[in-house]
Design goal:
heterodimer; A: 209 residues; alpha/beta; six-stranded mixed β-sheet; B: 602 residues; Rossmann fold; 4 domains; seven-stranded mixed β-sheet; five-stranded mixed β-sheet; 21 helices
């Protein structure tokens, strides 16, 4: 990616914004690590930010990932996420305002109902919130990654499958495929490595249109 | 982040992705730090957790921030470089030694890293360490990404040694827990100066302290002059229509949202460079100040007599952390139009409530379930167990600050207005942090309180760090473990019981007996944290759907493993389910089930 210099010597910002959301324990932070690692391997700059004080305890987890050149803020401006990767359906709805017109949303259809919803009599939101996306030219990719991962042998592959799917979106073509694979490989010991690479490649094959 | 620190011979060429805490730890390593001390606190915990990975640095968890500070001071008196780190609330605890250490000055370089938490993601208050720097009359450096976080550590040591002062290194949630690329360099060892006896400097009797006051006043003037010349303060000229004074993460948001504006980034945030700011203000058409969390620069600029109108904090937020969107909105509100458009396609949705929960198998759950049933006044403290304030447990009625539960209980008992017994609950780490002295008050004044020490053998809320009663150091080596029963009896408590806190009958019996005792009574829990340092997992429980009557009593224990299904009993009530992957087999839900429908799965 050629670097454009601004007048004052600073590199002009250019790249891809990925906003990852989910519930504590689902793998949001691991997915963001993989994207940043692959980007750094590809010679790009990467920044990411998350709040993880409560992540182990079933709270909302978000991670802002920005890769490219001249990256400034570790947070994405509302309406500027090229891709939103949602590990949980209600969390996708909560953060729709981050996605830019013409962007993509990957939603894992898993529903995690917090116990407090029972205590307080709260309803899980229906998915009518997605209805308006088409007219706003946002591509919605909904899939049951949990069942898919279980079929591949381990529900923990959800994260790898979804990251694979994300890596194959045209928005992510600033990172060549070999770096994604290297990044996946670097995260796992031998046996799990082969299985995760397989799950990643399965995710990449998902027909998104 | 513990365990991920970089070794000195690793990746010195090239760039690696580090979060702000890892970067500060790396900075300490490169700057030749010899001693580090801290008490865990989000978002700054991982500074020491990472420093501890470097074998060249003697790094330990202290009992609290005040002792961390005092340990650091002693080491600096010994003439080596020292880093003390803590979260923003910690400095309130460590203020006494900080103020005096500012007066005496140091020997070895002394850097105090403080992690602020704009937006109160995991903090009781939203404070600003620059104000502590001003109060203590010590310099403050504001980091804005991981590279600056690492580099400024070295700069802070130079300033500390040049001006004979502790230096505050101010970091934030969005630096501490944000990752960005960092260039790594090798460690540079510093020559140890050794301890030099100097009572006029280091013994703060009034006769000496009065003379040191003069030194502090003169030093502040020298620091003001330094602020004018240091390259930590950077002007980046672009359009002179808008000039933005900023620091920290906010600087990054400004560069993202409005790169066409000129910026003045204050890396040296106290004392401010008043003359350079005055000049900057005179050269721009509109003067904006964007900062977290208090309007500190704005007020300091006004105090310095900069009369130009400031578009300041009130345009951006009333409280809470900034983000690119709020920066954009604030600029627009002030009549400034950034070239970058904002094109939000959907309204933010409030979404499903998802408060943090006690984990499945959490040893605290049974205690608070019993307290709720007894309906005693429950004075709490700071830790995972503070989550018991939330429904369905909803059985904590106060929590003020670290260690407050015990003193508060003593006070409430003294007030004589309580119509029922008063119970204080405090975690092991919090008790060691600042619960021992108020328990002495309870002994000395023979207060009728019941104290439960929720000993789970870890500082769990911040990620399971060690402390004096868990037998392992910050570096993971074995150590002596303080015995809570010995400790409490040593303080003079005459009634002490250890209980299995997975057994609610025993919990209830112990509390009822303790309440009858005249004077303070202490119950000590024996079950460890379900997650840290070892994940506990025994045979899970399962719901016998034939027996489940759909009464949902088990939902009242607030366990993330239990949920209500759409399957119905014969009487049309929803049957519950236990997630076999999540259940640890603690049995609390089985103990409350009136129809014995919750059974071991094998």
């Amino acid at each position: 990616m050629p670097k454009k210099k601004r007048q004052n010597g600073l590199v002009e910002e250019s790249g891809v914004n990925v906003f990852i959301v989910g519930v504590g324990g689902q793998g949001v932070i691991a997915a963001s690590e993989i994207i940043c690692d692959a980007a750094m391997r590809a010679g790009l700059e990467a920044k990411k930010s998350e709040v993880h004080g409560m992540s182990q305890r079933g709270g909302v987890v978000t991670s802002h990932v920005r890769v490219g050149t001249g990256i400034t803020s570790p947070l994405i401006l509302d309406g500027e996420a090229d891709i939103m990767l949602a590990f949980e359906q209600a969390e996708a709805l909560r953060w729709l305002h981050f996605v830019k017109p013409g962007g993509s949303i990957i939603v894992n259809e898993q529903k995690i109902v917090p116990p407090i919803a029972f205590t307080l009599g709260l309803k899980y939101p229906d998915d009518s919130g997605f209805d308006t996306l088409k007219e706003r030219k946002i591509r919605l990719i909904k899939l049951d990654a949990f069942s898919w991962a279980s079929k591949l042998g381990d529900p923990r592959f959800v994260n790898t499958i979804l990251t694979g799917l994300l890596s194959a979106l045209p928005e992510m073509n600033i990172i060549p495929n070999e770096y994604w694979i290297d990044s996946i490989k670097s995260r796992f010991a031998k046996k799990m490595m082969a299985e995760n690479v397989k799950a990643f490649k399965e995710g990449q094959k998902y027909k998104t249109s | 982040m513990a365990g991920k620190a970089l070794k000195k011979d690793q990746k010195i060429e090239g760039r690696v992705l580090l979060n702000g805490n890892e970067a500060i730890a790396r900075g300490a390593y490169e700057a030749g730090v010899v001693v580090a001390a801290s008490y865990p606190g989000t978002p700054g915990t991982e500074i020491l957790a990472n420093v501890a990975q470097y074998e060249e640095i003697r790094a330990d968890w202290a009992s609290n921030e005040k002792t961390a500070m005092e340990i650091g001071i002693g080491a600096a008196m010994g003439g080596v470089r020292v880093m003390v780190s803590m979260k923003q609330q910690g400095i309130n605890v460590a203020l006494d030694p900080l103020i005096n250490w500012s007066h005496t000055g140091t020997n070895g370089g002394f850097v105090l890293a403080i992690a602020d938490d704009p937006g109160q993601h995991s903090s009781q208050t939203e404070d600003d360490s620059r104000m502590i720097a001003k109060f203590a009359r010590v310099p403050c450096l504001d980091v804005y990404d991981s590279q600056s976080a690492k580099d400024y550590v070295g700069r802070a040591f130079e300033i500390s040694e040049r001006f004979d002062t502790p230096v505050i290194l101010r970091t934030y949630t969005r630096v501490a827990h944000a990752k960005s690329p960092v260039d790594l360099y090798p460690r540079v060892e510093q020559e140890a100066k050794g301890f030099i006896r100097n009572p006029p400097k280091w013994v703060v009797v009034p006769g000496n302290a009065v003379k040191r006051e003069t030194v502090v006043i003169d030093r502040l003037n020298e620091l003001k002059a330094y602020a004018e010349e240091t390259d930590l303060n950077v002007i980046e000229w672009a359009s002179k229509d808008v000039g933005i004074v900023t620091s920290g993460a906010a600087y990054q948001y400004v560069k993202y949202v409005m790169p066409e504006a000129s910026t003045f980034r204050l890396g040296f945030s106290f004392p401010i460079p008043a003359e350079r700011l005055r000049e900057f203000a005179s050269k721009v058409n509109k003067l904006v100040v964007i900062e977290e969390t208090r309007p500190f620069f704005e007020e300091e600029m006004k105090i310095a007599g900069i009369t130009k109108e400031i578009i300041g904090r009130s345009f951006f937020v009333k409280q809470g952390e900034l983000n690119p969107y709020l920066v954009h909105q604030g600029l627009v509100k002030a009549g400034i139009k950034p070239k970058r458009p904002v094109s939000v396609v959907a309204e933010p949705q409030p979404g499903l409530l998802r408060p943090p929960l006690m984990c499945a198998g959490c040893p605290h759950r049974g205690i608070y379930y019993v307290i709720k049933k007894l309906d005693y006044h429950s004075l709490g403290d700071i830790g995972c167990y503070t989550l018991s304030v939330l429904p369905p447990l909803a059985s904590m009625h106060t929590a003020i600050c670290m260690g407050a539960s015990i003193g508060n209980a003593v006070g409430l008992a003294k007030a004589g207005t309580s119509d029922r017994p008063v119970i204080a609950t405090i975690g092991d780490s919090t008790f060691l942090h600042s619960g021992i002295t108020p328990l002495l008050d309870a002994v000395y004044n023979q207060s009728d309180i019941v104290l439960i020490i929720m000993d789970n053998r870890a500082t769990a809320m911040t990620g399971g760090q060690g402390h004096a009663a868990c037998g392992r150091t910050a570096k993971g080596t074995e150590s002596v473990a303080v015995d809570f029963e010995d400790l409490v009896r040593g303080l003079g408590v005459k009634w002490v019981r250890k209980i299995d806190n997975y057994n609610m009958k025993r919990i209830r019996a112990a509390i009822e007996e303790a309440v009858e005792f005249k004077g303070p009574a202490v119950i000590i829990n024996t079950r460890p944290c379900a997650l840290m340092p070892k994940k506990i997992s025994t045979t899970p429980y399962i719901v016998n759907e034939e027996k489940c009557v759909g009464c949902h009593t088990c939902m009242d224990v607030g366990c993330p493993a239990i949920s209500v299904t759409e399957r119905l009993t014969k009487k049309g009530k929803e049957i519950v389910n236990i997630d076999q992957m999540v259940c640890t087999g603690c049995s609390i839900c089985a103990q409350v089930c009136p129809s014995k429908a919750i059974q071991l799965s094998e």
